Amino acid sequence: MSTSRDDDAISPPSDGPLTDQEVRRLREDFPILQTEVHGHPLSYLDSGATSQRPFSVLDAEREFASTLNAAVHRGAHTLAAEATEVFEDARESVARFIGAGEGELVWTSNATEALNLIAYSLSNASLGRGGAAAEPLRLREGDEIVTTEMEHHANLIPWQELAARTGATLRVIPLDDHGALRLDAAAEIISARTRLVAVTHVSNVLGVINPVAQLVGLAREVGALVVLDACQSAPHLPLDVHALDVDFAVISGHKMLGPTGIGALYGRRELLEIMPPFLTGGSMITTVTTTEASYLPPPQRFEAGTQRVSQVVALAAAVDYLTAVGMPRIAAHEAALGARLFDGLTAIDGVRVLGAGIALPRVGLASFDVDGIHSHDVGQFLDDLGIAVRVGHHCAQPLHRRLGITSSTRASTYLYTTDAEVDAVVDGVQGAIDFFRRGA
Rounded to an integer, what distance in angstroms lies between the CA atom of residue 66 and that of residue 291? Predict the structure, then answer.
């Protein structure tokens, strides 16, 4: 599958950033980027919320629906067998993309479902489901679950609920005044009582790449499981879940050039094998009577019901596209864009870039607060210029509360973002300040 309609558009993968010419060629693969908003060419700076899709991803889903549409793992006819083969080939492609092994990738509707799958499976184990084999997964009163103050709500609320169901205590690693994780506090909080540590790889608000290795090290010292929210890292950085030594990781397809309605859970094979299921029904069983059932081994044990097959195929096309461009090159491109965005915004009087004082590497994302102007007004002003950004609390209310604000404006880049679009955001923010100050 060609990355671009022009086979010479992208040089062989290297560690260097994409050139301006390469980005312009890539943009031709994304039909939505050719549109206009309010009479302006669309400048899409909201990829942190949902990314756009290239022709190859759109075509892959359409081709499957047109030529191979059938239930997987169910039929004995030719079409069903071919659909199953494509479905499992896609699993292998996505698993390889994140460094997972065979049988370690479970399909879910999104990353939120994947996190809830872990939480509910541990809850079921704590109720005695899974038998003696699931004993290492059981939580009891006195046990502790640790997460952080910067998490997306999807990596916070499931652990609140798990603590409520099991009697465990939820503890939170605090942030310093800049928004960085306090590793000194983490070393005290993660203790012999800790059973699970859940942390985001990249903050969806601050854009900082967290020191996962240090947190994993603290968890390993006490025998705790580690859950990694990789939603903002898998699309933008080379990811190897085995090298990171995490026990679970979750990704979301629509943030990495794929369709909505598809996500995935990585789990260590030995853990998936002892975890009781979350959803139950057809396709995840071996034998059923009216009083009991036996379940398939993972990953099928966690894939009850009809699967989102065409979306899986499209996600595999998305990781093929990203691989062809080269994740190191995408990361380098976005790091340069992020620095340009950060420098431009911090130079504007009255603009506070969240996390500005954190000495950690970043992806191409910046959230900011404009003194005296609500984030929604900033976003609307930019939208009138054809610039799409995100406004609000970005599903991270505790982080915003810690930094003393209720909402922010977020601009997030991707492989198809240009320097000119970043400059347009910076100029647009200055324009918004000038406009609203005149109005005042």
Answer: 40
The pTM (predicted TM-score) of the whole model is 0.95
Sign of CA dihedral 364, 394, 201, 51: negative
pLDDT in tens, 136-163: 999 999 999 999 999 999 999 999 999 9
Residue 421, domain CATH = 3.90.1150.10
Is 260 among the domain residues? yes
Q: How far apart are CA 236 and CA 374, in angstroms?
A: 29
How far CA 19 is from CA of 14, 51, 53, 85, 334, in Å, comes to: 12, 20, 20, 37, 12
With contact defined as beta carbons under 8 Å apart, do 407 and 391 qualify? yes
Beta-sheet pairing, 263-267 with 105-108 = antiparallel
| Strand order across the 169-173 sheet | 105-108, 263-267, 248-252, 225-229, 194-200, 144-148, 169-173
The total number of residues written for the chain in this structure: 440
What separation in angstroms does the CA of 405 have from each of 393, 399, 400?
9, 9, 5
| Domain hosting residue 416, numbered range | 20-53+327-439
Do residues 239 and 382 share a domain? no
String of DSSP letters for 109-153: SSHHHHHHHHHHHHHHHHTTTTGGGGGGG---TT-EEEEETT--G
Q: Are 111 and 152 in contact (CB under 8 A)?
A: no
Q: To which residue do tokens 């047109």 refer?
A: 66
Reported as a single tens digit per residue, the pLDDT across 245-294 is 999 999 999 999 999 999 999 999 999 999 999 999 999 999 999 999 99
Q: State how far Cα 340 lies from the chain centre.
A: 23
Annotated catalytic residues are 395
Q: Alpha-carbon Rg of the chain, whole angstroms?
A: 22
Determine, yes or no, domain membership for 128.
Answer: yes
Q: 248 and 170 in contact (C-beta within 8 Å)?
A: no
